[in-house]
């Protein structure tokens, strides 16, 4: 199969996904094979919501829209243009996926197939309904993918390379288990935001998207703020207040109530606004409904500190603070070339061929 054929298949998948990216799902006339797949995917979305309470209709729509926007001919060609992908010797690449947000492993799935390899997917039990159905769509629009995509719930075996994502403890196991295979092993990372006190109301409103989207469960979600000494949080709380309906979701509310009770009983100092808490803490990974913060006295010292801890950080959100920063409100809108952990998966996949 030629690269352009693979690209064209994923463009068609993007057209298919676009139908499900709005609040009102609308069947388009020009999407291939809708008669076979449209109603079935609506059902899979429903199953995903029922199976995982964090996968709300809104968050699934957001994920599907993100992928529909990315899977266009222009973006796919711009992403792949720097690489020499033709004449790849196909290998079997295993992907062990996380399940924290909908379709979180799709970039790896796309990368393996677009480079001409075969993929063996082991999904998380938390996110098991959407991708297999989309894989069937891909095989239908491009039959040459038949035999290149497989899923397993058993031990991963008979593969040439692996991309695995898990917790810090799981990653250590992966590193041992896959030590004799080419691999990309990802562990826990968190994202941070650096505020100066000069942010506009719109900046802070945009930042709330980085904090609350997917309930903060993604590695690209901001879980910690760095603020200058003497920073007043009034403007920050005003900027995030429009997210207050989030507390009406039972799973979020339960976490908010539990963590608030823990903090109060432990007599920790924290600020809260009825649906969200902020707590001074040196850690990166904050619980649901909580954001950690830390004061800084020098931007240069802070840059040095963040550089030293870069292996724990996925994104730095700021405006004019550091090179390769992410703009407020854009952490959950990565481009295809914004690789997780800054490891170029396409280069990795081409190196094993």
From TrEMBL:
A matching Pfam family: LuxC
Source domain of life: Bacteria
Record's keyword terms, sorted: NADP
NADP keyword on record: yes
GO biological process assignments: bioluminescence
Recorded GO MF terms: acyl-CoA dehydrogenase activity
Keyword Cell division: no
InterPro entries: Ald_DH/histidinol_DH (IPR016161), CoA_reduct_LuxC (IPR008670)
Name under which the protein is recorded: Acyl-CoA reductase (LuxC)
Organism: Algibacter luteus
